[in-house]
Amino acid sequence: MWHTAIKTTELPKGCAKSLEIVGQRVALFNVDGKIFALADACVHRGGPLGEGHLEGRTVTCPWHAWDFDVKTGECQTMKGLKQKKFPVKTKDEGIYIDLGDI
Asked: pTM (2 decimals)?
């Protein structure tokens, strides 16, 4: 099911943002105008990825410096681990996320 997240103007290029949508913590990332969404709680210890440092397609968790590819959700620090990712679309200056059947 698709949910309204934020306006596109609220997430400039190169930025990340943590938010909660219908009880689900979501991290949004703007990589050169393309928006990606991952579960906001890092698989390592639950750190807020949306508050991490975004460099290209890599976000670094602010708690323990684990790196993740925001496009694939794959952990770069501990191979084989992945963050849950969510489909994203933009329309009429809004960002929408499909959280599935919540």
From this structure: 0.94
* Residue 11 to residue 67: CA distance in whole angstroms: 20
State how far the Cα of 77 lies from the Cα of 59, in Å rounded to an integer: 11
- Contact by Cβ (8 Å): 58, 72: no
Residue 102 confidence class, pLDDT cut points 50, 70, 90:
low
7's CB contacts (< 8 A; 6+ apart) are 93, 94, 95
Q: Determine the distance from the C-alpha atom of residue 80 to the mean position of all C-alpha atoms in its chain, rounded to a whole number.
A: 19
Percent of the chain whose pLDDT exceeds 90: 95
